[in-house]
Design goal:
- Helix 7 runs parallel beside helix 8.
- The protein has helices spanning 19-30, 35-38, 66-72, 84-90, 108-116, 129-136, 147-153, 173-183, 220-229, 244-258, 263-268, 272-278, 281-284; strands at residues 11-18, 43-49, 55-58, 98-102, 121-125, 142-143, 158-164, 184-195, 216-217, 233-239, 287-293.
- By secondary structure, the chain is α/β, with parallel strands linked by helices.
- It has 13 helices and eleven strands.
- Among the domains are: 70-195 and 230-242 and 286-293, Vaccinia Virus protein VP39 (Rossmann fold, 3-Layer(aba) Sandwich); 252-281, no CATH class.
């Protein structure tokens, strides 16, 4: 089958997931019925792009809609107004810039950067209508437009285009990234933050890492190759330090992995040096952030 990167013809089937199990897990953990997104499909597939290593769910038309995200919005942890990745990106924003955030939620990043950096023009795009209305009520410039629509009307406009925890929700990767590139000035920067699937997240059964929430599973290698595919110049990569609100999650995954190791390894893992070798910094990172230059 074709991959989300058209013209790169092949991908490999690497797994399947029961939709009954997914539906049950969403209901049990988040009290939301997602059965309508799967249209009575008995299972969904996971493929790996042979060129980039990007893993993705199939079929492509099982992603969540505005109703789905409005439900998740009720949880305080879902639209956190300021996180590590925001702080990292803010270092690249200077006075006089035009900045676009794709998938801005209720506008926490827009608001904080506007307060920190003088003389900038910052715009957010968001398809969750409830979040758009919340952000606009605080005077933020948030538009209910897709990146494709916005780029068509504003080509070559922005000095920096960023998205935080958005790309993993997108099935049509090509259209999404091309839209960001089109909206960017020559020499401008694209910043993308996604969950790190070569870290502890990738070793756990996290229902939000599956459709209809996540449509793709990214890591450093597939992100880097994605940038190469679109002709972007690589700038930098940053891994999120383990955050306090992820600490218990990491510890559960670590203990689960240790149970599969020989007794001697489990014993040695109590020493900080050995533990750091078994679970290095990149493994402890929930999020990876990569930056490119157009």
């Amino acid at each position: 089958m074709n991959t989300p990167f058209p013209n790169k013809k092949t991908s490999t089937l690497i797994g399947v997931k029961s939709t009954d199990a997914i539906i049950s897990k969403y209901m049990h953990e988040l009290n939301i019925d997602v059965s309508r997104y799967f249209r009575q499909l008995p299972e969904i597939q996971i493929y790996r792009c042979n060129q980039t290593g990007y893993k993705f769910y199939y079929p492509f038309d099982i992603s969540g809609d505005s109703f789905f995200y409005e439900h998740l919005q009720q949880y305080e942890w879902y639209y956190m107004p300021w996180k590590w990745e925001h702080e990292q990106a803010a270092k690249l924003i200077k006075s006089g810039m035009k900045v676009l955030e794709v998938g801005c939620g209720m506008g926490g990043f827009l608001k904080e950067v506007s307060n920190r950096v003088p003389d900038i023009e910052i715009t957010g795009l968001e398809l969750n209508q409830s979040a758009v209305e919340r952000g606009k009520s605080e005077g933020l410039n948030i538009l209910a437009e897709s990146i494709e629509e916005h780029a068509e009307a504003h080509p070559g406009t922005y000095d920096l285009v960023c998205s935080f925890q958005v790309l993993e929700h997108i099935a049509d990767v090509k259209s999404f990234i091309e839209g960001q590139i089109k909206a960017l000035k020559k020499g401008g920067k694209i910043i993308v933050s996604v969950p790190n699937n070569r870290g502890f997240l990738g070793d756990s059964y996290n229902i939000l890492n599956m459709p209809p929430h996540h449509m793709g599973l990214w890591d450093k290698i597939s992100l880097k190759k994605m940038g190469d595919y679109f002709g972007l110049k690589y700038h930098s990569t940053h891994f999120e330090p383990l955050q306090p609100y992820h600490s218990n999650y990491f510890q559960r995954v670590k203990q689960s992995k240790l149970r599969s190791y020989p007794k001697l390894i489990r014993h040695l893992a109590g020493f900080p040096l050995i533990e750091s070798l078994l679970f290095p910094t990149q493994y402890r990172a929930f999020t990876i952030q990569m930056t490119w230059i157009k």
